[in-house]
Amino acid sequence: MSARFAIEKLAMAHKRDDFTCGNNQIDSYFRETVSQDVKRKYATCFVAREIATDRVAGFYTLSSSNVPLTEVPEPLAKKLPRYPTVPAVLIGWLGRHSDYAGQGLGEALLFDAIKTVATAPIGAHAIFADAIDDQAAAFYAAFGFAPLMRRPRTLYLPVATALRLLSP
Ligand SMILES: CC(C)(COP(=O)(O)OP(=O)(O)OC[C@H]1O[C@@H](n2cnc3c(N)ncnc32)[C@H](O)[C@@H]1OP(=O)(O)O)[C@@H](O)C(=O)NCCC(=O)NCCS
Predict the structure, then answer these.
(1) What pLDDT is recorded for position 166?
(2) What structural domains and CATH numbers belong to the chain?
(3) Helical ranges in 21-168 per DSSP H
(4) When you count CB atoms within 10 A of the terminal residue's CB, does the N or C end of the chain come out lower?
(5) Cα(6) to centroid of ligand 1, in Å?
């Protein structure tokens, strides 16, 4: 996987206008809006570029955020300090071009996002993800993300647990 794709920060050279992952909302966000969010520092965006063709095969965004402690699933919550919120990073958007379906690229993007968060010099206890639909929620759940108490399409994983996924 890593030999075929380079995962790098979104740049002007990345061609986005034909990106399609099978979800219109994600496609139009990536084609039309993401660069404005990056410019305003509301998000960072990383793309998987197929090295041989220079095509954009997938992307994800990260934003600083937090999760109310009252929404963290038990028993995770009871191990945490009693601060009202848990410092976290949000995977706001993640998509893989349909031409690369089922080749492990979605997983590679997710693992890269986890690694980026875990190695950033800023405290973030957890990584959480906004799933666009139930299938997307199932994708995150397959990697151990747990739904928040009152928002089942927002899923949560402690960074320490995520790191164990990366080096089993
Ligand atoms: C979700 C998505 C990123 C998965 O990408 P992908 O490249 O097809 O997935 P991978 O090939 O990396 O699959 C990795 C593993 O996740 C599993 N998986 C993939 N999609 C899944 C789903 N919807 N539910 C449960 N498991 C799923 C695969 O079975 C695979 O497990 P395996 O290694 O045991 O076989 C892709 O389908 C996509 O871009 N969908 C549209 C946008 C979207 O839903 N984004 C999610 C965030 S909003």
Answers:
(1) 81
(2) 5-166 (3.40.630.30)
(3) 24-28, 34-39, 105-119, 134-142, 159-166
(4) C
(5) 19
